[in-house]
């Protein structure tokens, strides 16, 4: 949960940073696009022209009064001329266009100056009253007022542009404040998440330590229990069984019937208890991998046929028969014979135990190119679907209530599974309640095992 939140915040932070980079670029563009309002701006040029025009007018008047020479008029004329050229192109002209002011007055002034260029250049040194000069002077005067209007227009447009500039700056400022705020908030959330995660990690570390302590304690308890089973239970139980067998065999004389029945009961129960202990010790060894397999190549058909009389002797007590159907010859497998007999015995005992009197248990042996399959099928009570995945678990029994009439501890199938898998096979089951159950033991044929061993060795 915390991790997901962190990824979310990190994602948003990444998006925010991307936004900041994008907005920085656009801010830069916008700032560079802003009119700086510096002295090279159009207003300075227009007022400059207005001023230069007045200067030219003054100089001409002085000239007509004989107070200044033609070179003074020429100088003023040139200044005005060059200022007009500057304003009509480049940056200033562009800005004037942007302000959308009517600058025809400048064009007309320039045209008028051009028309009078030769007049100014050829002004005589001594001239007092010349009508062309006067006309020129009159023309110049007519431009004063339109130029003032142009100045005012430019001034207005420029202050409008300044206003927009101020608003843009305020806008940029707000945007960057918001983005900065968001970044700070994201960092704060990230920090908080980090603190939470650290706390959680500490908690789960403590929990793991506790579990480890518990597991170690459980391990110690388990090995103590196993050692108690081995020495304190198994050894005296063996003596009890031996003594009871001897008593039953008449070693201490003949007992009255009642005492004999009690002795039978002691013998039966002590044998069951002994089986349970053996099973628990066995499964413990299997789970811990502390057992050795003495494998050899065996004909599975022959092995089952050899065990069949034992199965039938046991099944007879339940009025069940065990039938072997070998559909293949020479089903060679590489197994530990003793362990394989144990596997078959567990499965057949189950099949008999959960059959009804008069039923038959069928053992079918088949083989393919790679596998030998032993199917042990009964027509007994069956296993409900929801129990099927659990039956190979240790101590699991479909009906573990005291009222059930079959004995056992629920370790048989767990031992079977561990042994078959240790012999590179697998065991599976199909069942239908009240119809019966079939267990399948699948083992690789001996040649396949040999081949895979050779491959492993290479
Ligand atoms: P144990 O084998 O330790 O003496 P168990 O026979 O009860 O005891 P498993 O052999 O492990 O234990 O079997 C587990 C359970 O699976 C049984 O208790 C039974 O409920 C069910 N089961 C196993 N084989 C069959 C079968 N052939 N038919 C119906 N149920 C079965
Ligand atoms: Mg069993």
Automatic annotation (TrEMBL):
<keyword id="KW-0597">Phosphoprotein</keyword>
<keyword id="KW-0418">Kinase</keyword>
<dbReference type="InterPro" id="IPR050736">
    <property type="entry name" value="Sensor_HK_Regulatory"/>
</dbReference>
<dbReference type="InterPro" id="IPR005467">
    <property type="entry name" value="His_kinase_dom"/>
</dbReference>
<dbReference type="InterPro" id="IPR003661">
    <property type="entry name" value="HisK_dim/P_dom"/>
</dbReference>
<dbReference type="InterPro" id="IPR036097">
    <property type="entry name" value="HisK_dim/P_sf"/>
</dbReference>
<dbReference type="Pfam" id="PF02518">
    <property type="entry name" value="HATPase_c"/>
</dbReference>
<protein>
    <recommendedName>
        <fullName>histidine kinase</fullName>
        <ecNumber>2.7.13.3</ecNumber>
    </recommendedName>
</protein>
<keyword id="KW-0808">Transferase</keyword>
<dbReference type="GO" id="GO:0000155">
    <property type="term" value="F:phosphorelay sensor kinase activity"/>
</dbReference>
<dbReference type="Pfam" id="PF00512">
    <property type="entry name" value="HisKA"/>
</dbReference>
<feature type="domain" description="Histidine kinase">
    <location>
        <begin position="228"/>
        <end position="447"/>
    </location>
</feature>
<keyword id="KW-0902">Two-component regulatory system</keyword>
<dbReference type="InterPro" id="IPR004358">
    <property type="entry name" value="Sig_transdc_His_kin-like_C"/>
</dbReference>
<dbReference type="InterPro" id="IPR036890">
    <property type="entry name" value="HATPase_C_sf"/>
</dbReference>
<dbReference type="InterPro" id="IPR003594">
    <property type="entry name" value="HATPase_dom"/>
</dbReference>
């Amino acid at each position: 949960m915390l991790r997901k939140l962190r990824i979310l915040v990190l994602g948003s932070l990444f998006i925010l940073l991307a936004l900041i980079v994008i907005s920085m670029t656009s801010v830069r563009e916008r700032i560079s696009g802003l009119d700086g309002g510096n002295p090279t701006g159009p207003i300075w040029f227009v007022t400059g022209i207005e001023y230069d025009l007045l200067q030219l007018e003054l100089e001409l008047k002085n000239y007509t009064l004989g107070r200044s020479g033609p070179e003074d008029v020429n100088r003023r004329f040139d200044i005005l001329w060059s200022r007009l050229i500057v304003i009509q192109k480049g940056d200033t002209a562009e800005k004037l266009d942007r302000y959308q002011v009517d600058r025809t007055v400048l064009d007309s002034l320039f045209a008028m100056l051009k028309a009078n260029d030769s007049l100014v250049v050829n002004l005589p040194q001594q001239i007092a009253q010349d009508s062309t000069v006067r006309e020129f002077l009159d023309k110049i005067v007519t431009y004063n007022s339109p130029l003032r209007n142009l100045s005012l227009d430019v001034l207005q447009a420029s202050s409008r542009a300044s206003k927009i500039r101020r608003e843009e700056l305020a806008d940029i400022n707000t945007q960057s404040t918001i983005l900065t705020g968001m970044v700070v908030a994201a960092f704060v959330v990230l920090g908080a998440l980090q603190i939470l995660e650290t706390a959680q990690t500490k908690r789960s570390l403590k929990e793991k330590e506790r579990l480890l302590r518990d597991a170690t304690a459980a391990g110690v308890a388990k090995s103590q229990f196993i050692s108690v089973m081995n020495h304190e239970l198994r050894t005296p139980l063996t003596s009890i069984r031996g003594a009871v067998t001897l008593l039953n065999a008449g070693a201490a004389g003949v007992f009255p019937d009642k005492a004999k029945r009690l002795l039978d009961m002691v013998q039966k129960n002590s044998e069951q208890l002994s089986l349970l202990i053996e099973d628990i010790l066995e499964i413990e060894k299997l789970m811990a991998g502390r057992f050795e397999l003495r494998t050899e190549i065996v004909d599975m058909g022959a092995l089952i046929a050899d065990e069949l009389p034992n199965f039938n002797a046991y099944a007879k007590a339940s009025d069940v028969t065990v039938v072997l159907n070998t559909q293949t010859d020479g089903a060679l497998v590489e197994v530990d014979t003793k362990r394989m007999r144990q596997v078959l015995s567990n499965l057949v005992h189950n099949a008999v135990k959960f059959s009804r009197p008069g039923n038959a248990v069928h053992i079918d042996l088949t083989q393919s190119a790679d596998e030998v399959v032993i199917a042990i099928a009964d027509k007994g009570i069956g296993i409900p679907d929801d129990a099927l995945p659990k039956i190979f678990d240790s101590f699991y029994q479909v009906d573990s209530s005291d009222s059930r009439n079959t004995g056992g501890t629920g370790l048989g199938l767990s031992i079977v599974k561990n042994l078959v898998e240790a012999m590179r096979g697998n065991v599976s089951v199909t069942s239908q309640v009240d119809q019966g159950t079939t267990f399948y033991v699948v083992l690789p044929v001996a040649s396949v095992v040999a081949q895979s061993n050779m491959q492993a060795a290479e």
